[in-house]
From TrEMBL:
SMART domains: THUMP (SM00981). It comes from the Bacteria. PROSITE patterns: THUMP. GO terms for molecular function: RNA binding; rRNA (guanine-N2-)-methyltransferase activity; rRNA (guanine-N7-)-methyltransferase activity. InterPro entries: RlmKL-like_Mtase, RlmL_1st, SAM-dependent_MTases_sf, THUMP_dom. This is N6-adenine-specific DNA methylase. It comes from Caldimonas thermodepolymerans.
Length: 407
């Protein structure tokens, strides 16, 4: 008897869809098939696939199960669509739920009323089936129901993740506007950095903030699954409550724990703010990778390249502060905001790299499409990525030792 298959949707940041498809194939096997969609990927998978994706995906924001899809014109159509779902197969009347709504070009005037109609339908189905209805919990629901509306189609999802997957379970200390873990992982994936001597080599983040890029990199270098230190909604949802599925989940976690190993390459990180270095150190300890990251304080424009083992390549990955995102202290902030040195910081950074980082590869995330000309460097790649609502590019620079040209 074959395990039932779910229609899955894994949302991700804009620009990450193809990377996420590759990751899903690596997690589930080369026979995995799906489709790229705007803002995510769609595929089919059984309960084991749902659990493995939650545990192992660094790029997905959630793992959603599609439970209904159809055309609509008004709120009554949404109610009828939600009435088709056997909600009792997901939760009991003693459990809690919440309805979230996203929309693109929907003609409905009130998304809150749309959510209310889905809530009414779920409660009516449960009351007719069990004689009572579950309660709404807007903060910590067991089941998060997600309604997505386009101009004329509605899709209902059951969220199997609970907290979004960028919440790995280790971040407590954070600075202003921290980079989401999923975007840090996307930067590493786009760079082809896989934490091995032949795939990226050593890694350095010289503007590490609270340590997100370095911690993601160290976990990759140590073979640590991103979801190993957190819980998921599916662990309490009915489709995953059977003894066979629970045994599969225990086995997936056992395999993940046994896969952890010493770091295959060194990971370095530094920040001009010693407070951020302290935050990064504490976060790394909670993430289980304090031993795998060499952390320092220091200005990005002054710290020399770390001494690498012979024959090992070096990769710089950084998300420098920029105006829409943050202003920090130190020379970075002076060059961005405080004294109008915006045109000076990046040329100085490029000159520093040419003096100290010859032979390294640098990847820089920035919303400035003219960054290469400001750095007086020619990029070898530019990858579109979205940092929340901010459209960015991940620029690759192959650093050649020497002096900057005079302009």
């Amino acid at each position: 008897m074959h395990a039932p298959l779910f229609d899955l949707f894994l949302p991700c940041a804009g620009g990450v869809e193809a990377l996420l498809a590759d990751e899903a194939m690596a997690i589930l096997g080369p026979g995995t098939s799906g489709t790229l969609e705007r803002g995510g990927i769609a595929l089919r998978g059984d309960a084991r696939a749902v659990m493995a994706l939650n545990l192992e995906s660094r790029l997905a924001q959630r793992v959603l199960v599609r439970v209904a899809h159809g055309r609509y014109r008004g709120e009554d159509d949404l109610y009828a669509l939600a009435r088709q779902v056997p909600w009792q197969a997901w939760i009991s009347p003693r459990d809690t739920f919440k309805v979230d709504v996203t929309a693109q070009r929907s003609p409905l005037r009130s998304l809150n009323f749309a959510a209310l109609r889905i809530k009414d339908a779920l409660c009516d189905v449960m009351r007719e089936e069990a004689g009572e209805r579950p309660d709404v919990d807007t903060r910590h629901p067991l089941l998060r129901v997600m309604l997505h509306l386009t101009e004329d189609h509605a899709t209902l999802y059951a969220d199997t993740s609970g907290e979004p997957l960028f919440k790995r379970g280790w971040r407590e200390d954070k600075g202003e506007a921290p980079l989401k873990e999923t975007l840090a992982a996307a930067m590493l994936a786009a760079a082809g950095w896989k934490g091995r001597p032949d795939q990226g080599g050593a890694l350095l983040d010289p503007c590490c903030g609270s340590g997100t890029i370095a911690i993601e990199a160290a976990q990759i270098a140590c073979g640590i699954a991103p979801g190993l230190r957190r819980a998921f909604a599916f662990e309490r949802l009915a489709p995953f409550a059977g003894p066979q599925v629970r045994a599969q989940w225990a086995e997936l976690k056992r395999q993940a724990r046994e896969r952890v190993h010493a770091p295959a390459v060194p990971v370095y990180a530094s920040d001009v703010a010693f407070r951020m270095v302290d935050f990064a150190r504490r976060n790394a300890e909670r993430a289980g990778v304090a031993h795998a990251i060499e952390l320092h304080g220091g200005d990005v424009l002054q710290r020399p390249a770390p001494a690498l083992p012979p024959g090992l390549h070096g990769t710089l990955v950084m998300n420098p502060p920029y105006g829409e995102r943050i202003a920090v202290r130190g020379s970075v902030a002076r060059s961005v905001d405080e004294t109008g040195m915006a045109d000076d910081f990046f040329p100085r950074l490029a000159a520093h790299w040419k003096r100290h980082f010859g032979g390294w590869t640098a990847w820089v995330l920035s919303p400035d499409m003219k960054l290469p000309s400001r750095m007086r460097l020619k990029e070898s790649r530019r990858v579109p990525l979205w940092n929340g609502p901010i459209e960015c590019r991940l620029f690759r620079f192959d650093i050649v030792a020497g002096r900057m040209r005079d302009d």
